[in-house]
Design brief:
The chain has 209 residues and is an alpha+beta fold. It has one domain (3-204): Cyclic Phosphodiesterase, Chain: A (Alpha-Beta Complex), CATH 3.90.1140.10. Helices cover 25% and strands 27% of the residues.
Length: 209
Amino acid sequence: MPRLFTGLEVPEDLGLSLAFLRGGLPGAKWIDVENYHVTLRFIGDVDERAADEIAEELSRIRRSRFEVRIEGVVAFGGRQPHSLVAKVAPTAPLVELQAEHERICQRLGLPPEPRRFTPHVTIARCKGVSHEAVATWLALRGGFSGSAWTPERFVLYSSKTSRGGGPYLIEGDWPLEPPRAGATGFGRAASRVAPIAARLHPRFAPTVA
C-alpha cells in the first residue's frame, strides 16, 4: 500500500509565492506547488490494520487553530545539502500537535521518529548540487519570510513508494476548531476519512450528511 504521513496543507497563495523561488540552481529537483506541505509525522508503509487504527486515533484529536509562520529559506544537509526548505516557526501549538501524532504512532507500535521535529516546507531536492551553488542561491533568494496562515485542518497523506516529492494524495482530514472566546478546552471535532482508509476498513467509508 502507499506510504502514509500526516501534515498541514500550504494555502494556494503562499504556494504560488514560494514557487517564484524556483529556478537558478542547476541540478535541483523542484517540488510541484500542489505538493507543498508541512509534515507532522511520517508513518511509512503500514498494513491495513495499522492504517485503520491510526486513522481512528487521529479522529480523536481535539485542537484549536493556530498560526503557522514561515521564517526564512535554508538548506538542509550542511556541507552536503540535500533539500531547500522554507523554515516554519516551531510554535507551541504546532509542536504540541506534532507530539500528539507522535504519541499516537508510538502507542500503536510504530518505532519512534529518530529525527528532531523541525517544521518546514520542502521546495526542492538538491542532492548532487554543490554546497557553493546552494550557498549562492540562498544569498540571492533566501530572504523569503514573514508569510503566515492558519490551517483549518490536518490531513493524512499517501505517497508513491517509488519516488519522493509527490504526487501526494489526501486520504483523510480532521478539522482544527476556530478559537472561541472564553473556551477552556478543545471542542469535539468531526472526522472525515477519505478513499484509502475507506478501502482499508468499511467503517471508515464517508457518510452522507
